[in-house]
Amino acid sequence: MTDSHISLDEIRLRLNELDDQLLSLFSERRKLSIEVAKSKVETSKPVRDASREQQLLVKLINNGKNKYDLDAQYITKLFHTIIEDSVLLQQSYLQNLANPQNRKPLARVAFLGSKGSYSHLASREYFSRKNMELVELNCDHFKDVANTVESGHADYGVLPIENTSSGSINEVYDLLQHTTLYIVGELTQPIEHCLVATEEIRIEQIKILYSHPQPHQQCSEFLSRMKGVKLESCVSTADAMQKVKELNRTDVAAIGNSSSGKLYGLQSIQGNIANQTENHTRFIVVARKPVEVSPQIPAKTTLIMSTSQQAGSLVETLLVLQRYGINMNKLESRPIMGNPWEEMFYVDLESHLDSIEMQQAIVELTKITRHLKVLGCYPSENVKPTQVKLA
C-alpha cells in the first residue's frame, strides 16, 4: 500500500523511474528477439511457435496473479502486444536476409494525401520496422500512387484496400487489375475518426464538413444525426484538415485523426464517431518487383482470375483450394472493363507461393480459368493473438 506521507511529486518521480526501467527492459527484450531470429536461421524453425507462446502466456498469467496480484486480462493484453512486436521484428530480420537487394538506407514511398492522412500514418508505421529513412511522396489519387511507383519515381506505394466498416475500396481493386506492380507487404491500422475544428465549437454550429468519401461512409450513422450539414469531399483526410485550417471559420470542421489534426493546429471536438468501435483499414504495399518470402514466415498470396461464364465455374476453382487445404481470407469480384457482365475475382490466400500445395493449386487453376495472375506473395503482418483459456 502506498505510504500516505509520500507527496504527489515523490510518487510521480517514482513512476518516472519505473517507466524508464520498463523502457530499458523492453529494449533489451527486443534485442533478444533478434537473437532468437538469428538462431532460427540456423535451425530453419518457423517464426511462430503456438505451443511455446501459449505456455509463456499461461505462466505469465499464473505468476502475475499469484505473485503480483495482476489481472489475467491485463497481462494477456500487454503480452499480446509484446509478442506481436517480437514476431514482426523477427519477420523483418528474416525478410532482410531473403531480400538483400532491398536493404537500402533510403526508401521513396508514395501515398494518398498530405502528411497526416491515414495512408501517410500507415506508411510510417509499416516502414518503422525496416530501418529505412523515408522520402515521402504525397499523391492526389490512388492512380497517381501506382503511376509514381511504376515510373520509378518511388520505390513503394501504400494503398488502402478494405475497411471493417465501409468494406472493400473498389477503386484500388480496379487499379490492381491493370497495374504491373506486385504486392510486397500489408498492414492493418486502427482508424480513429473524430471531428476536428480550429477551436472548441458545438456540433450544432457546423455547416460544412470536409473529409475523404471513405470516412463519410464509415461515419454515416453519426452524420445522419447532424442536421443541415453539407458534406464536402477532399483527396484525403489530411487535405480536409488543411482546408479547415485555411478557412479558419467556426462553422466548418473535418473528419480525421486527432493526432494528425494537431499537425494543422486543429483540436478534436468529438471523438468515436465511426459506425463501428473497432474500425480498421487494411493497407497493401506495392513495388515494381516481387519479394522473396522466407519459408519460416507466415505468408499470403494474392491472385486475380477470371472464370468462364458456365454455371459452377467459380465453385470449381474454390474446390481446388479446398482440396489442397488452402485457406481463403478474401474473395472480391469486380467487373472487367469493356466486357459487360464478366467479373474478375481477387483472392487472398493463407499460403506461401513456393509451397507444394500452392504450386499444385496454381497449375490446376490455370487449366480451368480464362485468366490467372499472381499479384504477389508477401509476409502476413496480421499477427493473430495467441489464444489461452481464461478462468
Structural class computed from helices and strand pairing: alpha/beta
Report the sheet with the most strands, covering strand number, pairing sense and barrel closure. Answer: 6 strands, mixed
Q: Which oligomeric form is depicted?
A: single chain
Residue ranges: pLDDT <50 for 5 or more in a row? none
Beta-strand content estimate? 15-25%
CATH topology term of the largest domain = D-Maltodextrin-Binding Protein, domain 2
* Radius of gyration over C-alpha positions, nearest whole angstrom: 24 Å
SS field, number of helical segments = 12
Query: Would you identify the CATH H-level superfamily of the largest domain?
Result: Periplasmic binding protein-like II
Which H/E pattern describes the elements?
Answer: HHHEHEHEEHEEEHHEHEHEEEHEEHE
Helical content, roughly? 40-55%
Domain Prephenate dehydratase: 108-288
Function: Catalyzes the Claisen rearrangement of chorismate to prephenate and the decarboxylation/dehydration of prephenate to phenylpyruvate.
Pathway: Metabolic intermediate biosynthesis; prephenate biosynthesis; prephenate from chorismate: step 1/1; Amino-acid biosynthesis; L-phenylalanine biosynthesis; phenylpyruvate from prephenate: step 1/1
Protein name: Bifunctional chorismate mutase/prephenate dehydratase
What does this structure look like?
The chain has four domains: 10-98, Chorismate mutase (Chorismate Mutase Domain, subunit A), CATH 1.20.59; 104-190 and 280-287, D-Maltodextrin-Binding Protein, domain 2 (3-Layer(aba) Sandwich); 194-271, 3-Layer(aba) Sandwich (D-Maltodextrin-Binding Protein, domain 2), CATH 3.40.190.10; 299-379, Alpha-Beta Plaits. The protein is 41% helix and 25% strand. The protein is built from twelve helices and 15 strands. The strands form three sheets. Strands 1, 2, 3, 4, 5 and 11 form a six-stranded mixed sheet that branches. It has a five-stranded mixed sheet with strand order 8-7-9-6-10. Helix 1 crosses helix 3 and helix 2 packs antiparallel against helix 3. The chain is globular, with a radius of gyration of 24 Å. Residues 2-94 form the Chorismate mutase domain. Residues 302-379 form the ACT domain. Pathway: Metabolic intermediate biosynthesis; prephenate biosynthesis; prephenate from chorismate: step 1/1; Amino-acid biosynthesis; L-phenylalanine biosynthesis; phenylpyruvate from prephenate: step 1/1.
